[in-house]
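FIELD: query
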Amino acid sequence: MNTRLIATTTALVISGTTAAFAGGLTEPVVAPQPAPVAVAPAPVYIGADWSGFYAGASLGYGQVDADGFADDTEDYTYGAHIGYLHDLGNFVLGAELEYDATEITDAATGINIDGVARAKVRAGYDAGAFLPYVTAGVAQAYTSGGLEADDTGYFGGVGVDYAVSENIRVGAEVLRHQFDDFNGGGTDIEATTAAVRVGFTF
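FIELD: result
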């Protein structure tokens, strides 16, 4: 009787142990790892290179003030320009030649302001696609009608250009002109012009 009990007990223990080992051989379940998320690099803005020759046209409005002139001596201006800029990194330097014809006539004196030629220097800040700048130089004014003459003065102003593409630029400019003792007649003439400009590099 005891022998049968011991045999039965031994068989149960062996059976349980075998089952435990059999269960232990089961491969562990591994949870899938999330797929890595690609992180796009931060965009790097590459600013315009302002170096090179350019030429273009402008359309604006001018106002002239002088002793003996009517208060509303003003009208449209239109012209062309050619120049060169050199980009030094943060700063841009350049020179430009420009001629503006005008429709300005003084009703009080009958003097026509036929046009203004300018020799400019420009200094600007490279702000990527934008180029704010200051400019100054020498101006030559031409008149007809009540006064057939031309005389030299000076000017200064501010402007901004925007690079639409590698070869096209648009901008705006405001200039203040001064002609002292115009043509030796004892009259000082001041003029302000504001213009929009478009240019093409080459």
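FIELD: remark
Strands lie at 52-66, 74-87, 91-105, 111-125, 130-145, 149-163, 168-179, 189-201.
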